[in-house]
């Protein structure tokens, strides 16, 4: 694939006088209505230093192409409104674990398209839900890993895949650290270094990882099974449902069943300082006020 100017842009993290990563790797999912180039300004409007975007309408199969003009406009927008990291989230329709050959083939095409757009825009990673196995869990793991392998081979470059832990409802894959690790281990060795993980606080809690009562043990378990070096980003979401509910229902930070303490711990734990932390909480009516309030709240937790 011909590389656009944005894909070759060196990523330079701002540093403080002491050389520590600065600012705070904190932001939100922002809209790309009007094109990807609109996203950095939306991030700046809420005070984000990292952002997550959709590169296409997430509930439609239509596959847009990032032209050199679109990529250049995005690069200029990032220059005007600097953000340290940008990740995309793949389509809600994609199911790389499906036993249906037609759906899996369509999902693979869409996933490869997501990688191409993200590479063309110079993004850091694509966050991906592992999908639903429908018939057999082990077969679903094999299908998902095989599709990820194929897509990464089709789209060489630097963009990574962050497999996201799920709340564990129904036949969803990725509900445990062990399952995430197995998925990565099944990916082809040649492209496996491009695969890491996204941890969502709502999903963790709903899947049975008790960040409220057992924060330290949860992350010790992650370190033992996966390794913190493979934690690519965090989604900071409270939960509308109780612990171990297996339901994915996001709530504003501090207003759900997790409360503020796990977020205070995350914001003050040096292990997570350089990891992008992204809100996916309810936007409210104007797409700005809630995100500004949540980011201010999170920054206020730092002691």
Quick summary of this structure?
The protein has helices spanning 39-46, 68-80, 101-121, 137-154, 177-186, 201-207, 215-225, 261-268, 289-300, and strands at 26-29, 50-53, 85-89, 125-128, 160-164, 195-200, 231-236, 238-239, 250-251, 277-279. It is α/β, with parallel strands linked by helices and 303 residues long.
Structure description:
The chain has 9 helices and 10 strands. The radius of gyration is 18 Å and the shape is globular. By secondary structure, it is of the alpha/beta class. The N and C termini lie far apart (46 Å). An 8-stranded parallel β-barrel has the order 1-2-3-4-5-6-7-10, surrounded by 4 helices. It has a single domain (20-300), classed as Divalent-metal-dependent TIM barrel enzymes (TIM Barrel). The protein has helices spanning 39-46, 68-80, 101-121, 137-154, 177-186, 201-207, 215-225, 261-268, 289-300, and strands at 26-29, 50-53, 85-89, 125-128, 160-164, 195-200, 231-236, 238-239, 250-251, 277-279. The model is unreliable at 1-22 (pLDDT under 50). Helix 4 crosses helix 5.
Name a few traits of the molecule.
303 residues; TIM Barrel; 8-stranded parallel β-barrel
CATH superfamily: Divalent-metal-dependent TIM barrel enzymes
Helix/strand order: EHEHEHEHEHEHHEEEHEH
> What is the number of domains?
1
Low-confidence stretches: 1-22
Q: Describe the global form.
A: globular
On the 0 to 100 scale, the average pLDDT is 93
């Amino acid at each position: 694939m011909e590389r656009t100017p944005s894909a070759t842009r060196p990523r330079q993290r701002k540093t403080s006088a002491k050389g520590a990563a600065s600012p705070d790797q904190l932001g939100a999912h922002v809209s790309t209505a009007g094109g990807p180039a609109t996203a950095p300004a939306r991030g700046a409007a809420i005070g984000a230093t990292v952002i997550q975007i959709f590169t296409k309408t997430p509930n439609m199969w239509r596959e847009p192409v990032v032209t050199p003009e679109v990529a250049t406009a995005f690069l200029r927008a990032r220059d005007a409104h600097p953000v340290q990291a940008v990740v995309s989230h793949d389509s809600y329709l994609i199911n790389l674990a499906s036993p249906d050959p037609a759906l899996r083939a369509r999902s693979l095409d869409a996933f490869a398209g997501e990688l191409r757009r993200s590479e063309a825009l110079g993004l850091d990673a694509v966050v991906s839900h592992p999908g639903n196995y429908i018939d057999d869990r082990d077969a679903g793991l094999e299908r998902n890993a095989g599709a990820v392998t194929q897509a990464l081979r089709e789209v060489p470059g630097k963009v990574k895949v962050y497999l996201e832990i799920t709340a564990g409802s129904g036949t969803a894959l990725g509900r445990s650290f062990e399952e995430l690790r197995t998925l990565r281990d099944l990916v082809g060795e040649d492209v496996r270094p491009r695969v890491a993980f996204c941890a969502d606080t709502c999903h963790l809690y709903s899947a049975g990882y008790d960040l409220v009562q057992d924060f330290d043990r949860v992350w010790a378990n992650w370190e033992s099974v996966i390794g913190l070096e493979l934690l690519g980003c965090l989604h900071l979401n409270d939960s509308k449902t109780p612990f171990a509910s297996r339901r994915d229902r996001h709530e504003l930070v501090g207003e759900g069943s997790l409360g503020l303490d796990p977020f205070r711990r995350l914001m003050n734990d040096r292990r997570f300082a350089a990891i992008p932390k992204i809100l996916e909480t309810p936007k409210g009516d104007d797409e700005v006020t809630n995100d500004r309030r949540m980011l201010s709240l999170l920054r206020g937790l730092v002691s």
